[in-house]
Structure to design on (327 residues):
């Protein structure tokens, strides 16, 4: 290994260490704070429903939902893709040991609320679950490495033709076409003509 | 919500299971974090080791710094500065949370005396006992 290569390897390693620390410490801490902030906003919304009288503070659905949100806020730092896999692996045994009350299931409790309030509570529950999923995906290195590129690929397929049509209407399209597409097309034509 | 009453055996069993899962995930996540960091540190060490015999540690440092271009130095400064900015902003946010959290808590408690808490500290940090 030449000195130049070794020094480049050293610089690269130092940069990678910095990126690793950034992702696994700083970025993760930021995501935990963001997740908690979003959960607090949901809890405030729930509280407003109680304050406006749409659901009683002592109603089981209110208590269960608030306790669930509190649990997510409290243990946000432990929420990880791996812990979810372990919970799912152990879910049967875990649910069997869950007592009927007061940790009863939320969906049943929601059925006892009047329809207008149920819709609002259902909306809060839906967003809560979306936030959990978002947190799991965006804090996992594996998910970043696998799901995000797949997601971008699907997104590009979904909006690809529309995005291309939009770009074609812009003035910059002429420059792009002249410097990238036309030379490529010309090369393809030249190769095609050889046959 | 559950404080102030005796917990049933089922509840305690569930708590033990959850704690076990938590501990396993926590240990595994910590291992992944440090194993990755250790691997990259090993790569850095091997690249230093490759220079052994050719250069002294001091001359490696001088060569390394001598190879830093202005653009690279600016990039490093930007990276370190950005992280520092984020950390300072975070501390500021924590101080603001500490200022407003009691107001929100008291207001909510006046309306709902049985209000339950997330158990975070007043600064919005994880409760010391909940950290693994």
């Amino acid at each position: 290994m030449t000195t130049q290569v070794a020094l480049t390897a050293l610089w690269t390693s130092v940069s990678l260490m910095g990126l690793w620390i950034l992702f696994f410490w700083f970025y993760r801490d930021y995501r935990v704070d963001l997740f908690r902030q979003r959960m607090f906003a949901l809890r405030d919304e729930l509280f407003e429903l109680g304050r406006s009288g749409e659901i009683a503070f002592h109603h089981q659905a209110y208590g269960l939902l608030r306790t669930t949100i509190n649990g997510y806020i409290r243990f946000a730092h432990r929420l990880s893709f791996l812990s979810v896999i372990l919970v799912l692996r152990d879910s049967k045994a875990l649910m069997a040991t869950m007592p009927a009350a007061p940790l009863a299931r939320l969906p049943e409790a929601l059925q006892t609320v009047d329809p207008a309030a149920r819709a609002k509570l259902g909306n809060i529950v839906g967003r809560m679950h979306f936030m959990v999923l978002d947190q799991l995906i965006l804090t996992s290195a594996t998910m970043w490495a696998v799901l995000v590129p797949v997601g971008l690929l699907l997104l590009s397929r979904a909006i690809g033709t529309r995005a291309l049509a939009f770009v074609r209407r812009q003035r910059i399209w002429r420059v792009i076409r002249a410097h990238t597409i036309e030379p490529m097309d010309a090369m393809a034509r030249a190769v095609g003509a050889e046959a | 919500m559950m404080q102030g009453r005796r917990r049933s055996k089922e509840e305690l069993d569930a708590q033990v299971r959850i704690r076990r899962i938590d501990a396993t995930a926590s240990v595994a996540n910590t291992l992944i974090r440090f194993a990755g960091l250790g691997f990259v540190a090993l790569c850095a060490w091997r690249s230093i080791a490759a220079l052994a015999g050719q250069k002294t540690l001091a001359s490696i440092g001088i060569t390394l710094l001598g190879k830093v271009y202005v653009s690279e130095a600016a990039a490093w400064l930007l990276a370190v500065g950005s992280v520092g900015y984020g950390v300072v902003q975070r501390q500021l946010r924590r101080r603001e949370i500490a200022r407003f959290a009691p107001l929100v808590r008291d207001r909510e408690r006046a309306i709902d005396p049985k209000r339950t808490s997330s158990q975070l500290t007043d600064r919005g940090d994880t409760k010391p006992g909940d950290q693994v």
Notes: Residues 16 and 177 of chain A are 37 Å apart (CA to CA). Chain A touches chain B through 54 residues (CB under 8 Å). The longest helix of chain A spans residues 3-51. The mean pLDDT of chain A is 87.
